[in-house]
Amino acid sequence: MKNFNRQLEHDLLLSRLAFLMNFLFQLLGIGDQPKSQLPDTAFGRFSDAYKSEQQQAYFDESLQLFEEGKHLEAYRTFFEFLYNYKRDNLQLREENDTLYFQFWQGSQRISGIADAQKVSAESRIAKARDLNVGFLRRLMEANFQLKFCRYALDSQNNICIRFDTYTTDGSPQKLLYALRELAIQADKQDDLLLEEFKMLEPFEERQFAPISDQEKQIKYDYLHSQIQQAFALIDKAQPDPNRYPGAYAYMLLALAFKIDYLVRPEGYSMDVLEKAYSAYFEKNNHTPQIKINLVRRELQKLLDRPQEALNNEFYRTISTFGANPAIGHESVVNLINSELPNMDWPLQQKHLELAFAVPQYIAGFALFHYAPPKPVRELLHLFFEVSEAPFFRSLGFANEYQVSTGQLNKTAIQKAVKQVLHRNKSHYPYLKYTPESLNYESMPLFGKTFFQMIRDLDLGRNG
């Protein structure tokens, strides 16, 4: 389509400019490992918060067209807003004044039509060989939690999630919220229902990109070793978890967030990580000590899960919507100011693992729940590259942030921070930091000063 071609030309121009800037950075000594040499490994959950200015312009244009009564043209422009040429996530065709669209969310396909009277979309989640009361009740209860969509059974007993609206009430803003809800629910529930109810089977062959057996083994070993190390520290009881449950809560929650971001399991294991977080923050009468045990119980499920089942949840997908909302830097600042002081006591008492869990928790929390500004997101990823350097090296990254003795490589870290700031300077012209502000004597001190650096960044823009 014509506008898709305009988007492609625009993004190709930006890519060429980025290439030239990266070339200059390499000459200036602030370059990074060439992208062509980077392993094809994904980290963190997909976010649609980092759209280009052109994509945002498409959305604004779709709203204007809808207000002018040009509904079909508005929808056509809206789907261009959703299209990501790097991922090829969406297909769109037009016949007889009707738009036919389909896009991907994880392993789920969402299909629909839009014409002058109505917009409808659905995703078929699973086939039911038998109408079991358990999953039917699950779907009925889930319908009460949905704002725009509904679960249903079609005439062939396929479980579907559907949305429809009349065009007069179907603004692009409404479509954005409704299709996001439909897509995220479909991608989440297919894994959970298929895991729990054995009379269900996938509706169609699931579309995802497998990863190598070597990467699966690396992720499996890392997940197991990290959980076992955390449990061993709790069992060591120095300090006593019953007296200082808050310190161990930071450690277990940071662990769950870290696994989600670095290992990135799908399906059942992803749900376990979400339940681990919910187990601690759910409002009830449980004491902190009991909540720690509940979190530990959830993480134990990952240790108990057969390797084949866990490995099957390591794969890459294409998504259109992200679940996490975009936030401003002030929200990141508030998070840091609220949590970072809680590392002072374990740091003073020389409980270094517990002290370092606090900045790990901040990084994981921000990446799990939010889509922070782009330079902050890149710095949070860099934090994990530094703190989990052996894991990154095992995946094939040229990670030099820790030397063989485990000491921090000051030169490499300063170079990487500088590279992040330069890469985002055009959108955030006031970005700068004082290299001397970072403390490299130990990992906890580095974590503390690294987040103080992030907190003090000026993310103001011109105009």
State the helical fraction.
40-55%
Q: Largest sheet, described in full?
A: 7 strands, antiparallel
Backbone structural class: alpha+beta
The stretches of 5 or more residues where confidence is low (pLDDT under 50) are: 1-31
How many discrete structural domains? 2
How widely separated are the two ends? 34 Å
Mean pLDDT over the full residue set:
90
Describe this entry's structure for a reader.
The chain is of the alpha+beta class and 463 residues long. The protein folds into two domains: 45-202, Yope Regulator, Chain: A (2-Layer Sandwich), CATH 3.30.1460; 213-455, no CATH class. It is 54% helix and 11% strand. The protein has 17 helices and nine strands. The strands form two sheets. Strands 1, 2, 3, 4, 5, 6 and 7 form a seven-stranded antiparallel beta sheet that branches. Helix 2 packs antiparallel against helix 3, helix 7 (245-262) crosses helix 13 (352-369) and helix 14 (374-387) packs antiparallel against helix 16 (410-423). The two termini are 34 Å apart.
Task: Sum this structure up briefly.
With 463 residues, the protein is α+β, with helices and mostly antiparallel strands.
Write the layout of secondary structure elements.
Elements: H1 2-27, H2 53-67, H3 71-82, E1 90-95, E2 98-105, E3 108-114, E4 118-128, H4 133-143, E5 150-153, E6 158-166, H5 172-196, E7 200-202, E8 209-210, H6 213-236, H7 245-262, H8 267-281, H9 288-304, H10 307-311, E9 315-316, H11 329-339, H12 344-348, H13 352-369, H14 374-387, H15 389-394, H16 410-423, H17 443-455
Antiparallel strand pairs: 1-2, 2-3, 3-4, 4-6, 4-7, 5-6, 8-9
